[in-house]
Amino acid sequence: MYWVKISCILCMFGCFKDFRPSESFVTDYLTGWKNFTASEVNHEIYPVTTYSYLSTLIIMFLITDFIRYKPIIILCGLSGIISFLLIILGKIVLVLQIAKFFFGLFMSAEVAYYTYIYAKVDKKHYQEVTSHTKAASLFGRSMSGIIAQLTASFDLLNYHQLNYLTLSSISIATVWSFFLPRVGQSIYFHRVSASDDEENNAAAVQQTIDQSGQPSNPRISSCDKNDKTQSDTLLHKIRNAYALLWKHFVLAYTNYRVIKWSAWWSLSTCGYLLVATYSQLLWQTAVKPGDRIYNGAVDFAYAIVGAMSVFSVGKLRLNWALLGDIICSLFAFLEGCILLTSSYSYNIWFLYTGYIIFGVIYHTMVTVARCVRCNYYCGPSP
């Protein structure tokens, strides 16, 4: 049950990483405590996260395997600390833009959190560990939502103080990340090289020769050692890694099922990030002055239902090759209807409900997409 232990350790990081109670009221905090206008928040501050996430995600993808996951997980925590420190201290748009740049880096570095587990467990456990890591993330978010709502509703903490709670949680996650087991071998850059097998075979042949009484050839042993040394060079590792990466790319994206699930993943993530980023600005248009807002309770509801859904789907054994198209189409249509009707609605409870349903669908299906896609083209874990 080693894989369960690794999954639990990683999930603790995920819980603390996503325990960010200040995010439930971040728009009200920026337009209230920080005195930024809704236009500044909408057009100058929030978009930086999107551009930062897009640009740094490519870099994170390329180097995560090379430096073996754990340093990127630590970077994820550190960038989160910097982001929320700047949010607490910042008073001008430029400082908040820098904060959102680091938040985009924080989001892109999460790729290491979600892929670390694939380098540590056997492929047969992919579906379960994928659901574990996603459920842990959603559980942390659900706890942050209910804490934010209770502390705000009973005037225990104000919006500014919630940022300190968020900062503390991310700091704990960062410290915890140092205790994650290191990844000795990774999928691309640090594989068990073929030369290891060749050396073992050569040793077996040499032993047979010795037993037969025939003289050995020291020149052959010397060549084997030289070849081994050459194969371990950095350049050789990089060349082999990108050759394997290209091979996996070709194998994956000549498979229409991988293309289908990847398209769902990328497009639904685009939609989800936009909804998650700008939903609070939409809710402000439906809330009258003096009304109590329940953003934290909504975050709790959607995250806890999503966590249960994601955890359950990890145990579910369905023929996704057969049912995938139907399920994806139905859920995509439902999400589209939610977005369309929400854009015309000024009923806050309808907007809250739509947000919860949209979030649950996204997290459930993206978990399915991740594990199905990995099952199609991920090689055996080291």
Distance between the termini: 16 Å
Q: Helical proportion?
A: over 70%
Major pleated sheet? none
Strand content: under 5%
Mean pLDDT, to the nearest integer, reads: 83
Transmembrane segments: 45-63, 72-92, 98-117, 162-181, 263-281, 293-313, 320-342, 348-369
Protein name: Thiamine transporter 2-like isoform X2
Membrane topology: Multi-pass membrane protein
GO molecular function, one term: vitamin transmembrane transporter activity
Keywords:
single chain; 382 residues; mainly alpha; 14 helices; vitamin transmembrane transporter activity; Thiamine transporter 2-like isoform X2; transport; Folate_carrier; membrane
Task: Characterize the structure shown.
Helix 1 (2-17) runs antiparallel to helix 7 (159-177), helix 6 (126-153) packs antiparallel against helix 12 and helix 11 packs parallel to helix 13 (320-344). This protein is mostly helical. Mean pLDDT is 83; it is low at 194-223. The protein contains 14 helices and no strands. The two termini are 16 Å apart. The protein has helices spanning 2-17, 26-31, 38-64, 70-89, 93-115, 126-153, 159-177, 194-212, 218-231, 234-252, 256-286, 295-315, 320-344, 348-377.
What is the fold's blueprint, element by element?
Elements: H1 2-17, H2 26-31, H3 38-64, H4 70-89, H5 93-115, H6 126-153, H7 159-177, H8 194-212, H9 218-231, H10 234-252, H11 256-286, H12 295-315, H13 320-344, H14 348-377
Membrane topology: Multi-pass membrane protein
Region (Disordered): 208-228
Family: Belongs to the reduced folate carrier (RFC) transporter (TC 2.A.48) family.
